Records
---
Amino acid sequence: MTIGDGHDLKSSRFSGDEVLEACYDNERALRSGDRDPAVEKVQEALIILGFPVPKVGITGIFGDETELAVRSYQEARGLKVDGIIGPETIESLDSEFPRIVSEPSVSPTTEPPVSKVPTPLTPESPVRSPRASAVRLAGETPEPVRAPHAPSVEELSVPPVEEAPDVEPVHAPAVKPVHAPPVPPVREVSARPEHTMRHVETKPPSTAPSTAPSTPPVTPEIPETDSQGRKFHSSGMWNVDSFLEIKGGRSMHFEVKNLGVLASPLRIKANTGESRDAMILSQTIADFEFSMVGKEPFNWRFDIETDSDTALLEWYLYSTWVPGEPEKP
């Protein structure tokens, strides 16, 4: 094996390795069972090229996994599949990696003869780079660099600017003030109407004679009794959860009308333990009945629950006892 005889490996990975150069010169081969640093280079090259040695890795030992990786590489490259690193396989591996760029050798002992024929020291080049700096040889006197003539400031004349003609001022007509009529004061409106209070104010029927002139009712006239003869007790509005504490008779009857545009669920719980609930459609009426045993009047408490944020419920209460009547045992 001779390195430098012209038949050498060219890549920087394998070039100069005596064992691999001998394989390239067909003087030896790497095979299963060999141990050498050259085996490490072959294992590393196979892993880089995508033929891994997964269990053992780079060990420098040519084992079964290394042989299998070599066979896989040979088959992929169309080489003789024998699992041995010979001249053909190492040449193929060598060609997979960058080659060494050789620098021209310079002999220190031989110098070219100096010609005695005088030659011009500053040859003129037909092409000059506009950005190249001048080179001064020994014995030459540099020529002074002359800057191009720049025009003086006085040579630059600026044309006179003509004066703009006088512009007559524009007088806008006077604007007559506009007197707006006074705005009448607006009565403050509570942000929480009375019917949204937790405690619902009832409207008992009035028994006192009215001295005010009669006006036509806006809403239909409320019946004095219901279908079972219970007398009108009071009325009101519900649109949130609330409660109603009131004195009434043994039998209480709520007529509840949904004034909203959507259906509203409603549940009424009495302090007697009774509970009634219904889904009231828009513009329809639902009935809620409650009763107790004992003397009249009875202190009723009703808890009102509605799950709708848009509820608008008008209620009328009928009772077997109304305010102003004597107690009944």
---
Amino acid sequence: MNHCLHQLRNVELEYKDDNVRINIRQNSFDAPQYLTRKIEHLIHELAFQATMIVFQCLDNAHTLITDQKSQLTMIAQRYNCQIDFIDVKVQNEIITLPKSINSSTIELTPKYLIEQSNQFYSSIGILKKISISNFEIEIHRTENNQLPKIDILIISAVKDAIKESIDLTSRSLYFENDIGRRILFIPWMLLTVSDVDVNQTNSHLRKSINDFISTTLKQVRAFCKDHVITICFSTTDWENFSSFEEQFANEIFNSLKIELETSEYSNYKCKILFTFDDQQIDLYNRFSQAISSVQTNSNTDEQFYYPIASMSFMFSIASFLKLENMNFIL
């Protein structure tokens, strides 16, 4: 009954002129006869209301084995409660990793802590992002092709269009799939490296990227009149630009910078994501290097996504308890 002590005190205050006193731990209450039934009813409602308790922990610590569930059940019964259900949800959350203000603190830090810190740091994917005008640009590694929460998906590869059941003969660029996801299909023809004139090839690459980024952003504005918070670029087949090495990734960010800093986008504020699957590690690394090279503030705290498990326990008073056994004094 600890969770409802405050409400019980409120009941006493409400009927203080009637000298109502509730001694829940002694299983008794004092009340005039004309209020006995009403006070019993109020106590019954409070006792049988369910209470939710939520714990958060790291993903690898959330699994509850049978013995642990049995232990929790026994603890609940010891305090005259029962667990109605246990729910576990895991989702990636942004964790901020503050940088040390004073580098001299490293000298005072035990060696084993530094080793553990380095080991943890190397095991996580630091969130790579930059800010351009009112936009935040991030790159993400996706697992099992699971996309983060987005408002519109930009695809440029035919295989993505087929995956989303898009009619390739349609003149439309904007689609909504069966689950209501908004999609823009902007076909992008891959360039081939010219053995004759590398400079000309680089120039064509730059123009191709500029046209693609400019067209995409204009189409987002045209088709999405309502508020768009998150735009996601699928990078399927972009690894085929690998012949251009880091120039490709650099040109992507340069083109975005040119477009987003124009007056056309001064009233827009949203996030742009680039997603990479497990088969695009090299491409992701190139984008990671490119985004790091244009980050203007190296003193900002690091951020990373990490799976956090939320365990919800619903408790209620044990069904075998009988409030009819409660004593009352007239």
---
Amino acid sequence: MRKIIKSIISRKNLRLLLLIAAAFLIFYTVKYIIKKESAACIGVILPITGDDKDIGETLLKALELFRKETNAKMKLGKEIRFIIRDEYEDPVKARQEAEKMVNNKKVVGVIGYFYSKNLEKVADIYEKGCLPLVTLSASEKIVAGNNWIFSMVGRDTEQGFMMAVYLKEIMKKNNVTLINEKNIYGEGLLGAFEKKALRIGLKINKNISLDMTSDSISDIIVRNFSNLENLKTEAVALFTTNKKNAIEIIKLLRKNNFEGPIFVPGSFHAGRTANELGFQEEDALMKNVFVTSHFVSELANSKVVQLFDSLIQKYGIVPYRDTPFCYAAAELFSHAIQNGAYTRNEIKRYFDSIKYEHPLNLITGFSYFDKDGFKNNDVYVLMAIDGWLKPTFIQLKKQREPLPGANNVITVDGTNYFVVDIVYVGLDFFRINDINTKDMNFDMELFLWYKWMGKDIDISEIEIVNGIFGITDKTTLIQKDMSKPVKYACYRVKGTFLKPFDLSEFPFDSQSLPIIIAHRTKDWNKLMLVMDKKHKQLAIEHIYPREWQYLGRKDVSQICEYNSSFGVPDYRKDNEGGNYFSAIEANILLKRLPVNYVLTIFVPLFIIIAIAIILFFVPIDRFDTRLSTAMTALLSLVVFQMSTRNPLPHVGYLLKSDISFFIGYILIFTTIINIVILHVIFRNSEKRARIVNIIFCLIFVVFTLVTYSLLTFF
């Protein structure tokens, strides 16, 4: 033993070991340097300090999440790095940070600027420096005049246009008073509203400009709204930069007895619940308040929901309204790099090529830029309902190109709009009667209700898409009220529903049971479904068979795409075509209780493997006994697996239980080989055979424990 140790630590071998260690160190150092130097550097300028640092932190966490996911997959061929700087309000500091980004030749693009007033100070620097900037600002005055700036949130003027059109065409209002904050954002919205109102015949009674730093705001509101009869205004359009200013003015308006509709822009949409928005659920001040926004979480797709869940679980932060747009900006750069755009000019050319005919499918949906660099975002109108901001029952969606057979289109000032009905859908799950993983379906009973306003809506045409209709399915009407403007109907539904279960982790798997609801004939240009979240689902107590634990519920909006032309002669497949249907998906989250399977599958499996271990302690000269016992164990394992596999479906992948049996086959087969080898060695040297037997026994036991531990816990 000493000779062996001495030979290992001899000077010659020691030098060789040190040389190998040095080679590994140099290799990984060079690899790290190359990786760092070849990384795609993207600048990020967002609020890190000041009053809006919480918003900046949320957006930065979303970008960090994107960076980790993208670099882990290595789908770009190079890593993404973010160079983060603060979005200063001070003009001097703001220009210094922008110049640093432009002068850093490694930076191929920038994501940033939450406020238009901050972007306005530095926009010229990016144009002169030829550095692509993807911003969260929506000022048309800034973005449209700069070829190197692209906006992810759509034009602010579109919100002004939508307010005017919605008031005139949907609410049938004729007189409106305008209140704007004196800054580039407020004045941009004001100008857009005034232009549209003039062209569509919406009368502006009065235009009030406010300096939010002044102490006379209350006096101005009182003076202008003290005599509502003389004012003769039916609505107010309020153009402010943030929700704090908007809430202050709304309170003053309500205090002066103005009860009409008040429209505020997306800057108000910094939160969604009453607490986040700065009012109580029972407060009357938010009644008849409407918000225009480029994003509505109720209509967000499953990718957005997954992003929000990840941010909450990993960082414990509540996502902000513009979080998906910030994440989509990072996706935009990754698409450019993936398509071979590595320089500033190449990335700009790639952004310029993203048009209506060839949109990108980002987290925010189908996306493209118009001629001025604005992303195509529809403007939604929201209202305060039950302490939440939710879509109104009628939405207007701009029609990009004429669609044949579209009978829900109105033309306003030369622009075509789809009149889209919103139907609120609510579900409460009552009982899960059966979860049939072999046939890939489940039987469930639930309460399903609808709320809507549209005259042409037939709720009987709204169906559960993944339903498997059979003889035991039943739908019973419980309540119905058609007398009020908001109509209501509630049903009790019993049915069987399709679910392609992923059993790769069986029996340590978790499953979701989805109920997907969509309209049979009306696409997303005619009708959109929104989940009614007023009532919270209680835990489901009755789940059969009794091998599942209820974890919770997750609801998402999504788009159902039917892979069919429907036989339409002039059919085209694009982001406005008629093969996309609005849908909602309610998921029950369950976890399998594995105790029964551990006792009925893994304990017998381990007993069979334990028999193989016991064979190491049987005398080596008992060759026939050892071999016959090992063969019996192998055959027992084969028969046992066949019996346990019968209740499970035939799938094209291995289950965790299958892997457990496969490892068992390897262990017993190697035991058989060991028995034969030891028999040969034993003929020549009994002592050597015993040593080999002990070594193999130790390796066998350690390998078995480690392998099954990893398989169980990972």
---
Amino acid sequence: MRERSVTLLVCVFFSIPIAGAQTLEWMNPTPRGTTVTDLIFFDAAHMLLSCADGTMLESTDAGSRWRERTFSGDDAILSMYKMETGVLVAATRAGYLLRSLDGGKSWTAVHEPEPDGSQYGEDNRIVMYDDDNGFAILGSNILILTQNGGISWNRLITTAISEYYPILGFAPQDARRWWMFHNGVVMRTTNTGSSWHEVQSQMQSSLVYSFKFLDGFHGLCGAYDGIYRSSDGGDSWQRAESEGDEPIGGFAFKPGLDGAVYGIGYDQSVVQRSMSGGAHWERIMEPDAFDSQPGAYKIVMYDQQTGAVIGPGGRVYRTDNGGNTWELLHGAGVVRDIIQLQPGLPLTAYTPDFSFTFDPATMQITRTEFPLGFSPDLLSLHKSRAGYMLKQHSPYTYGVYYTSDGGATLEYRSELPVYSHSNIPAMLHTMSVESLVVGYKYGTAYRSSDGGRSFDSLAIDPFAQWWIGSAHEAQRFDDQTHVFTSDMGFSLTEDGGESWHFIRKPHVQTGYEDASFIAPGEGYCLIEGRLYRVWNFFLEWEWTHHSGLFEKIHFFDMQHGAAITSEGGLVMSRDSGSTWRETGITAPEDCGWLWPSHKECWFYGKEGRLQRASGFLPLSAHGARTVRGFTLETPYPNPARAHSKVTFTITAERPSPQNVRLVVQDALGREIQQLTDGEIHGTQRVHYTPKSPGLYHIRMHTASGILTQKLVVR
């Protein structure tokens, strides 16, 4: 028979928060993980980004910090142009043409789309020759002309444009001469679009992706088989010398043939540079810089030294030395996870491209970029910045990597197989510095005890083995004790994974949504949105009888917890989930969350959001003993049959570690065991195994005084 233990929770308690009306604070140090559609420079350090979800992001310090601007709920700016006067013109997805006189803070519609939706398009864009003359391309093949700096726009009707083929590119040679290409055909106008004629040229046999004229005579063309150059106004074209034959999807330059010209690949992530007006080209960024993903690319140069590249998935890279080196400013994808291994330690958030760590005292941010081209699919930490990552190498294998510094450096350990296109690794859990578990979506789970160098099937029965492979999540209590949770039940190990105990969940036909355990086998679970209290090592269950449905739960102890309702509201309870109070906060959609303390919550997930809610009002815990910043919670359960606990946490008014001594006394006041003696910072759980039934006193000695709670053991 397994020995039962009493868990004592000592608490220098923040008091459990119930908030008034609160707001969510944007915490991302970089833009969110949405697709960037365009970028403009006001100066070398001042940038404005437009994003596919309607967000505008601005930085005035070369991309170190960003401010968010919401443009519109349902629309988004896809293309922008900045005039020398600072006036901006833009095209939106819905077909609106806009103008801004204040650097993008506010916009005025100067053209409204047709009601039939014909001007809606994912590739709507602005192409200007100078601050007065330009075109907008809307709905893939509708040309709108301006000759007064975007103040007014007029639709250009011409039979040269087929309604069946989108305009792939549009480039000005001067104010009246323009080039257009679609469906493999290159066309030219010399009268601002009144008439067009097809151009026969050397690159006509090749699919054209881009045009750029450096002046009225010198032009560049990015074709399927390489780069072409003209020095006679486009009458003839010659193939330029380059280090590759990848098609160029866009050019960027500053006036002057002696200056540098830049080209970016159309379907390969490569940047080329010419210092000879386009006659000779060299590669300055290789494909793996963008993780070799095909997609739309754009390059923007502010001057000969400063520029930016928009790559696939919304990545933005910046150069300050003419393209010799590039720095990632904006990573693709969402914030996948945020981790704090114990209160008081830094919080580390992870995206596919980098991690950033927040100091809880100063909120200073430290960013760590992953090695170029490395984007982990799964990650799990053991220490503050040490743990394991999985990266898919091919359709058939995943690589296992170890990091000791949050991903800045990686050590390859081994490869794991993929059994089918859907049965892939779905969970990675680091148990200790040398032990980790990988669970597959529909298959078995594997454990490594040598730091990921080799893996063995978990030594559990087939039913439980199938279950743990599809586990939703894992919770770590210490190096030896871990709980895995899924639809079917719980797997518990208390010896670091050498042996497992499977406990089938009641109502197994229903789905599991979330769990929050205070100790192994004791805590709360959501089943079909209903809250259940669990104790006695998962053997006893009780429905809280609360009428509402929840999506997520988090409990600080068995009495106090937080939840997200099915409507998205953040609510909190101080009576074991029987009643709940609203906080006034609506959680972001499809979010994960983390509670570093009772006073703040961090939300992460959709579109890269990382937001924080803080400043909750204190609410004293029932039965707690307090003295100037320290609180000793009532043991739970009390009387104790199996185990009980007491929790201590240092308040925000005492951010530094505090000396605490916790002892157990019998009914006569004799000290029978010392539980802890030393500096304490954050929440700690202390386990105590009583030797016989009786009345015990738990005493916590602090610099502010002595606190006492009674514990009855039957």
